[in-house]
Write a structure and sequence with these properties.
By secondary structure, this protein is an alpha/beta fold. It has one domain: Rossmann fold, CATH 3.40.50.300. Helix content is 37%, strand content 15%. It contains seven helices and five strands. The strands form two sheets. The chain has a three-stranded parallel β-sheet. A two-stranded antiparallel ribbon has the order 1-2. Strand 4, helix 7 and strand 5 form a beta-alpha-beta unit. The longest helix has 18 residues. The protein starts with 5 loop residues before the first helix and ends in a 19-residue tail after the last strand. The model has no long low-confidence stretch (mean pLDDT 83).
Length: 195
C-alpha cells in the first residue's frame, strides 16, 4: 500500500545488512532535507528517479544486491501506487520471497486493506505470480507504541485475507518493525518483549 514504508524499510534493511555505507546515507539525508523530505533518506537508496524523489513515491522497480554470511540477496523494491501496478508485477514475478509491508498506524492498516487499498491486491498478485514464501512486516509499530493488541488485531485480519489468497498463515512470519528507526529488523527489541 502507498505510504506503508516499503522503500524506507527496504533501504534501511540494505543499510543494516552492510549493502550501503553510512556516508551515502548521510548524503541522501542531506539531499532529502534540502527538498523538505528528510525522512526519505533510506527510501532514496532505491528511489533514484527525480519524479520518485519529488513525489515521495516509488514508480519503477529497483534492484539492489548484497551478501550476508549465508546468502546472496537481491532486493526488488516495487511500487505500491495503483498507477504503477505493471511495474509491481514485473518486480514481483522475479521474486523467491515477498515481504508484504503493512503500515500499523491507526487508520493506515485499515486504508490498506479497504476495497480501495492495495494490500490485499499485492498479496493476491504475489501468490498468483508464484511467490510462495511470504513474510508480513507490520511497519510503523512505533507509532502505536508497540501495542501487542494492535499487533494481534492486524495479524488476525491479515491472516484471514492471505488465507483466502492461498497462503497458509501458520507458515507466514508476522514481524513487528519500525522501518525508519530500523527497530526489530535484525535484532530483538527490549520494548517489544511479547514478540
Amino acid at each position: 500500500h502507498v505510504d506503508s514504508g516499503k522503500s524506507t524499510t527496504t533501504g534501511h534493511l540494505i543499510y543494516k545488512c552492510g549493502g550501503i555505507d553510512s556516508r551515502t546515507i548521510e548524503k541522501f539525508e542531506k539531499e532529502a532535507a534540502e527538498l523538505g523530505k528528510g525522512s526519505f533518506k533510506y527510501a532514496w537508496v532505491l528511489d533514484k528517479l527525480k519524479a520518485e524523489r519529488e513525489r515521495g513515491i516509488t514508480i519503477d522497480i529497483a534492484l539492489w544486491k548484497f551478501q550476508t554470511a549465508k546468502y546472496e540477496v537481491t532486493v526488488i523494491d516495487a511500487p505500491g501506487h495503483r498507477d504503477f501496478i505493471k511495474n509491481m508485477i514485473t518486480g514481483t514475478s522475479q521474486a523467491d520471497c515477498a515481504i508484504l509491508i503493512i503500515a500499523s498506524g491507526t487508520g493506515e492498516f485499515e486504508a490498506g486493506i479497504s476495497k480501495d487499498g492495495q494490500t490485499r491486491e499485492h498479496a493476491l498478485l504475489a501468490f498468483t505470480l508464484g511467490v510462495r514464501q511470504l513474510i508480513v512486516a507490520l511497519n510503523k509499530m512505533d507509532t502505536c507504541k508497540w501495542s501487542e493488541d494492535r499487533y494481534n488485531e492486524i495479524v488476525k485480519e491479515t491472516s484471514n485475507f492471505i488465507k483466502k489468497v492461498g497462503y497458509n498463515p501458520k507458515t507466514v512470519p508476522f514481524v513487528p518493525i519500525s522501518g525508519f528507526n530500523g527497530d526489530n529488523m535484525l535484532e530483538a527489541l527490549p520494548h517489544c518483549p511479547w514478540y
